[in-house]
């Protein structure tokens, strides 16, 4: 199976190959086969990308916002028309089942482009009356923004960064994860087909060293990273040294709290979505499932029954509900946590092993796993695993469970299940998390701001909120009278 792009990078509206960068392979996680060989960006590619982004940004900033919006919406239509082709590519690159990629990847990227395309003509400033003078504000672009992607939602992440950046009149250079380099190139093609001026959206490939070089580059005005907390700390430190504006979307260890009056089947559906969708490789996952002790055994019994019906298999078969993990490295990491969980005394309810899948002996499959009797201090309750590993912790008291839920360095997301409306809001008010759900989990419509408290991030993506992170406000004082001076 091959998915080799025309060249590794997309700069100035065309594909471009590196002459001297480090080569690396993109693998299909279900088989370990090489599907594409990419060559990371060398200095010549970096220079070309910066030069074309500078030129493109000038043209784009002078383009009326309504026209910018039309181009974004046209790009959304192209992604929708090509959804199946793009979903297959995303499945090959990530291993996520086609059942998911058909609805959650290019499709959500299209939602994002359409949303910001719609906002384009509505981004206005303020008039401020000062008596004999007035002021007005205008929203201006930052310049060239650098986006850095993670591997779990490659095209969605590229759209979540590009759409608000572009609608504000910026250019973007985007570096996908080296693990999933392919779909961002297709997004670049779609932008060009929709009429985006050359150089406004460019794709550079490479590892963290290419990322760091770009973060430090004097012509980059802003950096937006989606990645892990350790990478976030490095990017923030480097960006801080150069006083770059920064948005960080990082990891989590989010709580999902289920009270004894909850609708149990819905709560189990949410726990499944919060731990097993995308084989558990979602930053906002509710991996600490606090279940009231009064319903714990019933909850575990039904959760185990339903988890056993998951279909692990060929990711390209639409009946498959769980695909492999993205890489051998991620499989090794998850297997390590499965061992640590058992060694530290958690009770294995189901799963716990690498999964054997017919016809895919070399795939990075792991069984969806449920641990019960997990305590707050266990490693599996404290560290982000990024795999299909669900930990159930017991609780009896509302105040106590919220304190425990907040006792983490992360603060990306949180959820609560209860039929008591006052309790739901009381608990949400106290939870330290940027995105919260009541009686559902992991829905992230583009209209809703998304981002982390504490070490889970800085800034917000999505919704109107993202506009503030991709633009700067210029205040202009206008004097209508004379100017007084001391002498
Ligand atoms: P990662 O941190 O290993 O890599 C993320 C990106 O950063 C990659 O493109 C990588 O090449 C780049 N990078 C690495 N070192 C760098 C450096 N020093 N300077 C600049 N760039 C550098 O993350 P990952 O393994 O690709 O993704 C998984 C992580 O991402 C998890 O922790 C997950 O929670 C997080 N994530 C967060 C969100 C969110 O929106 N909050 C969404 C998806 C994933």
Automatic annotation (TrEMBL):
Please give the Pfam families that the UniProt record associates with this protein. Answer: Aldedh
The record's keywords, sorted A to Z, are: Metal-binding, NAD, NADP, Oxidation, Oxidoreductase, Potassium
EC number(s): the record gives 1.2.1.8
Sites binding K(+) 1 sit at 26, 93
UniProt-listed InterPro entries:
Ald_DH/histidinol_DH (IPR016161), Ald_DH_C (IPR016163), Ald_DH_CS_CYS (IPR016160), Ald_DH_CS_GLU (IPR029510), Ald_DH_N (IPR016162), Aldehyde_DH_dom (IPR015590), BADH (IPR011264)
CDD domains per the UniProt record, alphabetical: ALDH_F9_TMBADH
Assigned protein family = Belongs to the aldehyde dehydrogenase family.
Q: What is this protein called?
A: Betaine aldehyde dehydrogenase
The scientific name of the source species is Roseibium porphyridii
């Amino acid at each position: 199976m091959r998915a080799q792009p025309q060249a590794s990078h997309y700069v100035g509206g065309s594909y471009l190959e590196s002459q001297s960068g480090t080569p690396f392979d993109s693998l299909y996680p279900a088989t370990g086969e090489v599907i594409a060989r990419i060559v990371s960006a060398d200095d010549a590619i970096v220079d070309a990308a910066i030069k074309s982004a500078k030129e493109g940004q000038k043209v784009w900033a002078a383009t009326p916002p309504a026209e910018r919006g039309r181009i974004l919406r046209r790009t959304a239509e192209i992604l929708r028309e090509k959804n199946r082709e793009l979903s297959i590519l995303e499945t090959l690159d990530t291993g996520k089942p086609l059942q998911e990629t058909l609805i959650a990847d290019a499709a959500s990227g299209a939602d994002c482009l359409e949303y910001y395309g719609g906002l384009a003509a509505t981004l206005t400033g303020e008039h401020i009356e000062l008596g004999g003078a007035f002021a007005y504000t205008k929203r201006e672009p930052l310049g060239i923004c650098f986006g850095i992607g993670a591997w779990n939602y490659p095209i969605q992440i590229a759209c979540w960064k590009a759409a608000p950046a572009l609608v504000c009149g910026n250019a973007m250079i985007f570096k996908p994860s080296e693990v999933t380099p392919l779909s961002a190139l297709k997004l670049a093609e779609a932008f060009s087909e929709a009429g985006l001026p050359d150089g406004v959206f460019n794709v550079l490939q490479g590892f963290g060293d290419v990322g760091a070089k770009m973060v430090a580059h004097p012509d980059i005005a802003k950096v937006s990273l989606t990645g892990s907390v350790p990478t976030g700390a490095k990017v923030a430190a480097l960006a801080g040294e150069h006083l770059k504006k920064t948005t960080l979307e990082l990891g989590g260890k989010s709580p999902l709290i289920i009270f004894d009056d909850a609708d149990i089947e819905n709560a189990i559906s949410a726990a499944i979505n919060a731990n097993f969708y995308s084989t558990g490789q979602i930053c906002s996952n509710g991996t600490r499932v606090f279940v009231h002790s009064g319903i714990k055994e019933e909850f575990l019994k039904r959760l185990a029954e339903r988890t056993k019906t998951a279909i692990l298999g060929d990711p390209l078969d639409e009946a498959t509900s769980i695909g492999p993990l993205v890489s051998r490295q991620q499989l090794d990491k998850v297997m390590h946590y499965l061992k640590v969980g058992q060694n530290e005394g958690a009770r294995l309810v189901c799963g716990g092993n690498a999964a054997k899948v017919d016809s895919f002996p070399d795939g990075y499959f792991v069984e969806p796993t449920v641990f019960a009797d997990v305590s707050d201090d266990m490693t599996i309750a404290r560290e982000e695993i990024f795999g299909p590993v669900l930990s159930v912790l017991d609780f009896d008291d509302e105040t106590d469970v919220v304190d425990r839920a907040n006792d983490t360095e992360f603060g990306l997301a949180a959820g609560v299940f209860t039929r008591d409306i006052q309790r739901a809001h009381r608990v949400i008010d106290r939870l330290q998390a940027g995105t919260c759900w009541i009686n559902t989990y992991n829905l992230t419509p583009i209209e809703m701001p998304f981002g982390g408290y504490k070490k889970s991030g800085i800034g917000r993506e999505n919704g109107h909120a993202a506009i503030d992170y991709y633009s700067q406000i210029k205040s202009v004082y206008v004097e209508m009278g004379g100017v007084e001076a001391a002498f």
